[in-house]
Amino acid sequence: GSVVQCSSLRRPPSVWARHPDGIWSCVLDVGSMLEEAATMGPDDDGSAHSKLRMAHSAMHQLANARFERVTLPEAAGGAEALCVLPAKVADGDGGFPFVCKIHGGPHAASLDAFNVETALFVNNGVAVIFPNYRGSLGFGEEFLEALLGHVGEMDVADCVALTRAAIEQLDLDRTRGAAYGGSHGGFLTA
């Protein structure tokens, strides 16, 4: 068999594997797990093409999503958040519902990279806020060390301030929001 990988900066990798019997499978690499998403071959009943059309439609929506950056003033700590907004117009006057996805760590960072959860939210009309609170990596040593001795205070304040700023600056509905995270992000959510 053979394996072909097709990648783009705005899409996740698409990995195709050809089995010795001539059947091609579309394999998606989600973290360290491989999941067969579609198979095309001589006995294909057409469902693989249907799955590929659905995947193409979802990727088109995601490719048209808006990416915005919200930054707090230096006097307020200078934290920033990446916000991903759906391509379609928000329903009604309230704006998009949103989730605030808080990274763990605390010495980690939210990155501008493909994420299956983000795709699920955005393709269903939900905006996602990714805060990089003080203590996050990638913003310099002073920003990283500022959190020392202030865990549960400064990081919480940054996430709240970034969420409020995103609501004010972007088309988000303040009445339809939620927050979640794992590890330190779960601690901050609680």
Automatic annotation (TrEMBL):
The superkingdom listed in its UniProt entry is: Eukaryota
Q: Output one GO MF annotation.
A: serine-type endopeptidase activity
Residue span(s) of domain Peptidase S9 prolyl oligopeptidase catalytic? 114-189
Q: Which GO terms describe its biological process?
A: proteolysis
Q: Which UniProt keywords apply?
A: Hydrolase
Under PANTHER family, the record lists: ACYLAMINO-ACID-RELEASING ENZYME, SERINE PEPTIDASE S9 FAMILY MEMBER
Instruction: Please state what the protein is called.
Output: Peptidase S9 prolyl oligopeptidase catalytic domain-containing protein
